[in-house]
Specification:
mainly beta
């Protein structure tokens, strides 16, 4: 949101069956109330979490200032965070449902910086140890800016070593029974997406296939190994494939936490094509 600088606003979110002719929603069903403080330029971000399966495509919001002046209903509002809460192949709380919901979410510039904001997909699956999602079919390709972060799973840990890796990755995508498909796919419209902290193995095609969108970040993943990173469970084509119109993809990065471990895949670890401008840095 953007309004008067350095003020505390009360933001109320509402879900709606339909939008009115102006494209804005109304206040059909109250969902959440929270506060946000704007910075010196009048900008403020609202972070909202909804369960997967919740229809986020027709959310609208109002903002009320300290003098009780309330705005009109907003256009459809971007959802910030979705949580994966189980290892099911589909349904409420699954990764598949989170990607479906993220693809449907309104994508707008919430913080006013001139770029569309990403929907975050976080993990909060009960219990300890590695959580393996045994996929039974292809996941939907990602068509909107999305940040999938496996390090949000309780107990996961980013790498801190200059040499080697001591990362603890606890979210594993197993494609053994998913059919002739890749693991995660980024296509046109998904600009600026990030995939972090996942173990992706045993897919018939690539672990990650990037065929469109610009400026993606793939970091801190294990691609083609087990969750410990010490044995091969390779994807049958490439660990990562960048092709099509994709431009400016970063694989790894300058920080130790950005290091991908890419090993055991049957054709190539990394295949680069696309529109160019890619960076590969600090991976094993």
């Amino acid at each position: 949101m953007q309004s008067s600088p350095s003020k505390v606003f009360t933001v109320e979110l509402f879900s709606n069956t339909t939008l009115d002719p102006s494209g804005n929603g109304e206040g059909e069903n109250f969902e959440q109330r929270l506060t946000v403080t704007t910075d010196a330029s009048g900008k403020g971000s609202v972070i909202v979490t909804f369960p997967t399966g919740f229809d986020t495509s027709k959310l609208t919001a109002t903002a009320t200032d300290p003098d009780n002046n309330t705005s009109n209903f907003s256009p459809p509002t971007s959802v910030s965070v979705l949580e994966v809460t189980n290892t099911n192949d589909s349904g409420v709380g699954s990764l598949r449902q989170a990607i479906i919901d993220a693809n449907k979410a309104a994508v707008i510039d919430v913080d006013g910086d001139g770029t569309n904001d990403s929907v975050q997909i976080n993990f909060k699956i009960p219990g300890t140890g590695v959580k393996t999602i045994d996929l039974q079919s292809a996941l939907p390709d990602i068509t909107r800016p999305v940040k999938i972060n496996g390090y949000t799973q309780p107990g996961a840990k980013e790498n801190t070593l200059t040499m080697g890796t001591n990362a603890a990755l606890l979210i594993e995508l197993n494609g053994e029974n998913a059919g002739d498909t890749h693991g995660l796919g980024l296509v046109s419209g998904s600009d600026g997406s990030e995939i972090r902290g996942l173990v992706i193995n045993r897919f018939e095609n690539e672990g990650i296939n990037i065929s469109g969108g610009n400026n993606h970040l793939i970091s801190g993943n294990y691609l083609g190994t087990n969750a410990s990173g010490d044995a091969g469970l390779g994807n049958k084509l490439n660990g990562i494939s960048v092709q099509g119109t994709a431009k400016g993809v970063s694989l790894g990065g300058s920080k130790t936490a950005d290091r991908n471990l890419i090993s055991g895949n049957e054709i190539k670890g990394v295949e680069l094509a696309g529109a160019g401008g890619h960076t590969i840095q600090n991976n094993y």
